[in-house]
Specification:
The protein is of the alpha/beta class and 284 residues long. It contains 9 helices and 14 strands. The strands form 3 sheets. Strands 2-1-3-5-6-4 form a 6-stranded mixed sheet, sandwiched between helices. A 6-stranded parallel sheet has the order 9-8-7-11-13-14, with helices on both faces. A two-stranded parallel sheet has the order 10-12. Helix 1 packs antiparallel against helix 9, helix 4 crosses helix 5 and helix 4 crosses helix 8. The longest helix has 16 residues. It binds NADPH dihydro-nicotinamide-adenine-dinucleotide phosphate (NDP). The site of NADPH dihydro-nicotinamide-adenine-dinucleotide phosphate has 25 residues, from helix 4, helix 5 and helix 8.
């Protein structure tokens, strides 16, 4: 396909710090090319004190959209014109779309996770244990509640952060949520249906162990990890050894990026191309 065009290319970007190693550009560029779009995607290192200027630059240069990653997902909120309901509930944005002159913030992390999960389990009526209470856990917790989970047990090392998520879930999305402050091995309740590692344990360390004591009934569990690099985490290997059905973090990355692609381009992306790209990227 001839990718040379006389008109200006549309620009999208990711803002983060440190952002090197983020796989989104690789996935998006493969998807743009596959769908015949002469678009560009930039990976931009933006320090916290440069975020406001970066968003001004995005407006001035007419970027079509941006992904927002660590540490900017909360700070970006006040720089935007509007938020979707989910982003407002979470108080965090990972995807910005330009709609005419307005910048609209969405949070696709939780939706990406849910779309990845739905091939394996329906969250409605299920008892969920959510390990972690950071940005990924908040996004997933809200979407699980909106999908009708019966109960969510938040397990977090830092009690105060865990309690903030439990309060959000109980008050704003009306799911019965409780907190366990994590000390030593967390003993998994036998009645759990879905177990999710939404901590950063395992990121860049395939042997890092998530301290969980598996119950005898682990074979009935769906166990998911948000960590995508590497995707074959110690947590998922232990879950498989206990007979559980497992879901790696690559599915979440692909689906959250696909939502952004759809929002920016209006085109339904080929998920296979995006999955292949991210697998290729993490193997580099
Ligand atoms: P945050 O820093 O916001 O939260 C990190 C969480 O991990 C906190 O709950 C923290 O607990 C917990 N944690 C970290 N280290 C430990 C430890 N040694 N023991 C117990 N708990 C620990 O990070 P995010 O929520 O933004 O990201 C979490 C993970 O999700 C990362 O690996 C990230 O790469 C991944 N991610 C994956 C996505 C995907 O598409 N697959 C999308 C977004 C994120 P405490 O509060 O006590 O510090």
């Amino acid at each position: 396909m001839n990718m040379i065009s006389a008109s200006l290319q549309e620009i999208c970007a990711v803002f983060g710090s440190p952002v090197a190693g983020n796989p989104t550009q690789y996935m998006m560029e493969k998807a743009f090319a596959h769908h015949g779009l002469d678009w560009r995607y930039l990976t931009l290192e933006v320090a916290p004190d440069g975020l406001a200027n970066a968003v001004r630059g995005m407006r001035a240069m007419g970027f079509r959209g941006a992904n927002i990653t660590k540490p900017h997902k909360v700070a970006v909120v006040e720089l935007l014109d509007r938020l979707t309901d989910a982003a407002a509930l979470m108080g965090a944005v990972n995807c910005v779309t330009r709609e005419e002159d307005a910048l609209v913030g969405e949070n696709t992390d939780g939706k990406g996770f849910m779309q990845s999960l739905c091939g394996m389990a329906d969250a409605a009526g299920k008892r969920v244990v959510l390990l972690g209470a950071g940005g990924a856990a908040r996004a997933i917790g809200v979407e699980l509640a909106l999908a009708g989970a019966a109960a969510i047990e938040v397990v977090n090392r830092t009690g105060q952060r865990g309690q903030q998520l439990v309060d959000l879930l109980n008050a704003k999305v009306q799911v019965p949520a409780t907190l366990t402050v994590w000390q030593g091995d967390y003993r998994l309740p036998a009645e759990t249906d879905i177990l999710i590692n939404a901590t950063s344990i395992g990121l860049n360390d395939p042997d890092a162990r998530v301290p969980v004591r598996w119950s005898g009934s682990a074979a009935r569990l769906v166990v998911a990890d948000v960590v995508a690099s590497p995707p074959d985490t110690c947590f998922l290997r232990e879950a498989k050894d206990h007979g559980a059905t497992t879901l790696d973090g690559l599915g979440m990355i692909v689906h959250q990026a696909a939502i952004a692609f759809r929002l920016w381009t209006g085109i339904e992306p080929d998920l296979g191309i995006m999955r292949e790209a991210v697998e290729e990227f993490v193997a580099l």
